[in-house]
Design goal:
heterodimer; A: Aldehyde Oxidoreductase, domain 3; 17 helices; 30 strands; globular; disordered N terminus; B: alpha+beta; five-stranded antiparallel sheet; four-stranded antiparallel sheet; 16 helices; 12 strands
């Protein structure tokens, strides 16, 4: 443990974002632990969501979807449905207009909904029933008779392994098959080797607010109220599909009730609602039911990772292999890059990785918190634990021995990396030095106890963004950004950025979000809002100050500005700012064309208890320390990380959407049949902290992203703790009775 | 879900009469609403029985506790009478569902829940939209769960036609308490032991050949009567109360529920134990298991084998092995036998039993 103690004494600062009194945190601006500005509106129901709006004349749409996974529609009989009370129109594939070809992404699937009679997945839309009330539309949907010629569906377990196309595939986020060095020699000459296969199941986002779209055409312009994580993606997608100027499509998204990735891309309901609205000439509301969300807006693909690790006698990795496969749809090649984290985590003289898909009769998967590194780091960090036991080495020591300060794949230096400090602080907080390495060493009554840990890494995604900041003579400021508030606290954080830049209280800042009539901004996904939009807001604020100085003809302070505006008779001054990326791209990952590799890091420590008589395991404690750049708001940041850790607990212990391979249908499309963590599963105090850090390269404000990082590594820390408790290695998630029962 | 007429029953005989004519009775509504949304039942008339008088009280007279059918799970859980003299029932109610559901759900409806089998619970407005066979949904169509993936499948009493289990927690406690079920129906009142109230699929197959079975089915037996008869409640009959005697065993009782999630989830297996143990010797043990058959599963043989004996590890292991020797887990579900046995062990200890 010598390395670790050295680091501990060298620690410069820990931001403890606990419920207790934070240590020396600023009262205002960046770093201030402020509550969400929109919290009271949300808990009192004042905040409105897309599905709540109801313009006069709105028709309710209910989708009739395919009950089989593969086949061909032979007949759709809408007679009874059309005759039902309140039903205004029933649309079938025959009613669909000619459409342009969608760009994928932002459109999730290249095959447009109801564009063919072939059925490619269970839940595929076949007809739309439009009625005056929701109940009438649902009753009508039950009366549509569908004749289907059924065929045997393809499923993940039996499908062919394919190399996904990279040409024209928008889901390719990196090289498929990176390789470096002499892998065979690395294995041949190694002192220790392990090889194992790890699987994570298909699972769904299960966000609180189901997806919802309200579409209305007014004078050739399309107005949508939508529950989305990416208003601009929706605008771009529909502009292509309907062959329209993007500016004539207006997306309004007052609040988004969670998404975890399900609302990132554009799904059938968002395309069908405007089509239906155009055909009937009335506003159409299409809210997915919970059941509809299981086939209507993506899911995280199950993954299979085959890992081989080799090391010398001291634990230094000599060769690494990580081969991954995920399921994808008939129409598209979504790639779950489960080996992405493995590319950047450790010093590796030689490595070989492959990334493959298996095509089945399922809807297209999509990103889900955390994509890529989420399922992938379960595999890598389990394998590292197995290697540590193979060597007889402390698992944390093994990680420290393989620490790298440059990207092993690109060779670039990291923009900032305090992973070693995170290891040390996390270890100190959980009491790692008291851990007994030998499994089955600690007991409490009927229960075996174990400590486990895992490292975490997440790609830094960045999006070009714009923002506008305005000032009025009453001394108030307004931030205007075409972003959406999904619950993470972005509204509060943008106000804090302005407050710090100008040295004013953030209560004087109003943040206006939720419309594509505002400056274009980053999607709320890929942990990219704060890094991208926060930087644009900072630049816009600086530009506003310059403009006011110019107006005054000298350097001014913000408290002089109300008088200045009054004197000049100006009732609003505004400035814009942009966050741009090298190469003028709209999006980059891992640092893109910069000279730096950009990732976030973490160290997760967990204590588990296991009763082998009943087969039940529960989490006793969780500690996580993160290196994620500057932390703008410790309260909202801590909430995100706690949420991520609970998400990770779900991945490890509960969540799965199994499919019956005979029918190609999810067993349960309802929360009563899919287990998500509840409060009783989660220890009272999840201990989260951040290493004090300022990343000078990733953004204008020192931050990287945090939203997805919290989920990474948790599952492996849990199963590693279960191994330490029981000597039983769980390689297939979620952990279940059969893995643990004596 | 289609439109339906809703009415409040003024008295029990009119409720019973409406039920005979095909109306759906509703009390807490926590399960009926699911059935109607999923397409499991479709009723033109829904009759609310929550205003019927005298059906929600929890009383003790002498050694007998009577629980009205309209008592909610949270009322029963919080009742001092139940907590003191039958903690197994209080605990079973507390461990059921969520706090919000327990405030609505009544003990009368609770034992009439249907299986959590995902094949049965598929969303399908009509039979032709069912994505897979299910004999309970479309009689004669087959059973998808038998070769499928239903972790709560029966260990006992299942047939080729159906492997469903009864998911109720309170029912398991009531069986361990040897409760009587009081019923009122078109032909008057009657009581039956709760141990006989639910039936397994193989019992249902036998029952279908009797006059009682034909009445339960409302006519001639279809091809798969074993999937369709789940209890002995006759058309129009309403559960009005449960009664059981308190004794030393009921006062020393406990409920253990094993599940992936710590709360708000049905059991993989559960155990209700009433235990009278004196100086290490078992004077009486009553053991019932939940979620392993279409009825709460009494371990009568184990109870007899433990009676008069000390509760030592070797005997318990042997008794439990015998009790599960004819269990028939589905392929890949052998672990369920161990989970059920683990539930019994932990419930014995929780009930105050000391295992030597």
């Amino acid at each position: 443990m010598t390395d670790m103690h050295k680091i501990e004494t060298a620690l410069t600062g820990i931001i403890v974002a606990d419920d207790g009194a934070p240590l020396a945190l600023p009262e205002n601006g960046i770093g201030s632990p402020q509550r969400r500005m929109d919290g009271p509106d949300k808990v009192t129901g004042q905040a409105t969501y897309a599905g709540e709006d109801m313009p006069n004349g709105t028709l309710h749409a209910v989708l009739v979807t395919s009950p089989v996974a593969k086949g061909r529609i032979a007949a759709v009989d809408t007679g009874q449905a059309r005759a039902a009370p309140g039903v205004v129109r029933v649309l079938t594939p025959a009613d669909m207009p000619t459409l342009g070809s969608p760009s994928v992404p932002p459109t999730a699937q290249s095959k447009l909904p109801m564009s063919s009679l072939d059925i490619d997945y269970e839940g595929q839309p076949i007809a739309i029933v439009l009625a005056e009330t929701l109940e009438q539309a649902e009753a009508g949907a039950g009366l549509v008779r569908i004749g289907i010629e059924r065929a045997k569906p393809a499923v993940f377990d039996t499908a062919e392994v394919e190399v996904p196309p990279t040409e024209g595939n928008g889901y390719v986020l990196g090289e498929l098959d990176p390789a470096h060095g002499d892998v065979d020699a690395g294995f041949a000459n190694a002192a220790h080797r392990i090889e194992a296969t790890y699987t994570t199941p298909t699972r769904h986002h299960n966000m609180m607010e189901p997806s919802a779209t309200l579409a209305e055409w007014r004078g050739g312009d399309l107005h949508l109220n939508d529950a989305t994580q990416w208003s601009w993606g929706l605008q771009l997608s529909l502009a292509g599909i309907f062959d329209m100027e993007p500016s004539r499509i207006h997306i309004r998204c007052p609040y988004t009730g969670g998404g975890f990735g399900a609302k990132g891309y554009v799904w059938p309901h968002q395309i069908l609602a405007p089509i239906a609205a155009r055909i009937v000439g009335r506003p159409v509301k299409l809210n997915l039911t919970r059941t509809g969300c299981y086939t209507g807006c993506g899911y995280q693909s199950g993954t299979q990772s085959r890992l081989r690790l080799a090391s010398d006698a001291q634990g230094h990795l000599t060769a690494v292999e990580h081969h991954t496969e995920n399921v994808t749809s008939v129409s598209d090649d979504y790639i779950e890059f489960a080996n992405m984290g493995t590319r950047g985590m450790y010093a590796m003289p030689a490595y070989r990785m492959t990334t493959r898909v298996r095509r089945a009769n399922v809807g297209t998967p999509t990103a889900m918190r955390a994509p890529h590194e989420g399922p992938g780091m379960f595999a890598l960090e389990s394998a590292m634990d197995e290697l540590a036991y193979e060597i007889g080495m402390d698992p944390l020591e093994l990680r420290l021995a393989n620490y790298t300060d440059s990207d092993p794949h690109s060779g670039k230096p990291f923009s900032s990396n305090k992973l070693r400090e995170a290891y040390a602080e996390g270890a100190r907080r959980i009491g790692w030095s008291d851990r007994v390495h030998e499994p089955r060493s600690r007991r409490d009554g009927d229960k075996l106890l174990g400590l486990g840990m895992a490292g975490a890494i997440m790609t830094t995604f960045r999006n070009a963004s714009q923002a506008r900041v305005a000032m009025t003579p009453d001394g108030r400021f307004t931030v205007e950004v075409g972003s959406q508030e999904i619950g993470t606290g972005t509204r509060t954080i943008f106000a804090q950025v302005v407050a710090e830049r100008l040295g004013i209280p953030s209560e004087r800042v109003t943040v206006v979000l939720g419309s594509t009539d505002l400056p274009p901004a980053s999607a709320t996904l890929g942990s990219a809002s704060t890094i991208s939009i926060g930087s644009a807001v900072a630049t816009a604020t600086d530009n506003l100050k310059t403009r006011l100085d110019d107006m005054a003809g000298r350097e001014t302070r913000p408290d002089e500005w109300p008088d200045l505006l009054a004197r000049l008779g100006v009732d609003r001054v505004q400035a814009e700012g942009a966050f741009t990326l090298p190469g003028d791209v709209s999006f980059d990952a891992h640092g893109g064309q910069t000279d730096y590799s950009m990732h976030t890091w973490g160290a997760v420590f967990v204590e588990m208890e296991v009763d082998e008589i009943t087969g039940i395991a529960r989490m006793r404690r969780a500690v996580a320390a993160y290196s994620a750049g500057r932390i703008l708001n410790p309260v909202t940041a801590r909430s995100q990380m706690i949420g991520g850790i609970i998400f990770g607990y779900g991945r490890a212990m509960l969540e799965a959407s199994p499919m019956d391979p005979r029918y190609g249908r999810y067993l349960s499309k309802n929360l009563s049949g899919v287990q998500l963590p509840v409060n009783a599963d989660i220890p009272r105090n999840i201990d989260v902290c951040f290493i004090e850090e300022h990343d000078p390269h990733a953004s204008a404000i020192g931050v990287r992203g945090i939203g997805e990082l919290g989920e990474v590594g948790v599952a492996a820390a849990i199963t590693n703790a279960i191994y330490n408790a029981t000597g039983k290695r769980v390689r297939d998630l979620p952990v279940h009775f059969e893995h643990l029962i004596a | 879900m289609k439109n339906f007429a809703y009415a409040i029953a003024p008295d029990i005989s009119s409720a019973s009469e409406a039920a005979v004519q095909g109306a759906q009775l509703v009390a807490g509504g926590t399960e009926i609403l699911n059935w109607m949304r999923l397409g499991i039942v479709s009723a033109d008339r829904v009759i609310d029985i929550t205003r019927l008088p005298e059906l929600s009280s929890i009383d003790r007279q002498g050694d007998e506790i009577r629980i009205g059918a309209l008592a909610t799970l949270n009322q029963i859980e919080g009742s001092d009478i139940v907590r003191q003299d039958a903690p197994v029932l209080s605990q079973a109610c507390l461990l059921a569902a969520s706090a919000q559901l327990r405030n609505r759900a009544t003990i009368g409806g609770n034992v009439l829940q249907k299986t959590r089998c995902p094949y049965f619970r598929a969303e399908a407005a009509t039979g032709d939209r069912m994505p897979w066979p299910c004999n309970k949904r479309v009689p004669g169509s087959g059973c998808s769960a038998r070769e499928g993936d239903f972790s709560r499948a029966a260990l006992f009493g299942a047939t080729e036609a159906c492997v469903a289990t009864q998911p109720s927690d309170p029912a398991v406690a009531l069986v361990a308490l040897d409760a009587e079920v009081d019923l009122v129906g078109p032909s008057g009142s009657r009581s039956i032991p709760i141990t006989r109230f639910h039936v397994t699929q193989s019992e249902a197959a036998d029952l279908a050949r009797t006059r009682e079975g034909r009445r339960l089915l409302g006519g001639d037996a279809p091809e798969t009567p074993d999937a369709l008869i789940e209890n002995r409640l006759m058309p129009g009959e309403i559960i009005v109360a449960y009664r059981f005697s308190v004794d030393t065993a009921s006062r020393n009782s406990a409920y253990v529920k094993l599940r992936e999630r710590e709360s708000y989830e049905y059991a993989m297996a559960s155990a209700a134990v009433c235990l009278d143990q004196s100086a290490g010797q078992v004077r009486q043990a009553r053991v019932a298991l939940g979620s392993i058959a279409q009825k709460p599963w009494r371990l009568s043989g184990a109870e007899a084998a433990l009676s008069g004996q000390t509760l030592d590890e070797a005997r318990l292991t042997s008794v439990l092995a015998t009790a599960f020797s004819d269990a028939e887990p589905l392929p890949h579900q052998d672990y369920k036998v161990k989970v059920a046995q683990g539930a019994v062990r932990r419930a014995l200890t929780k009930a105050g039993g000391s295992i030597q």
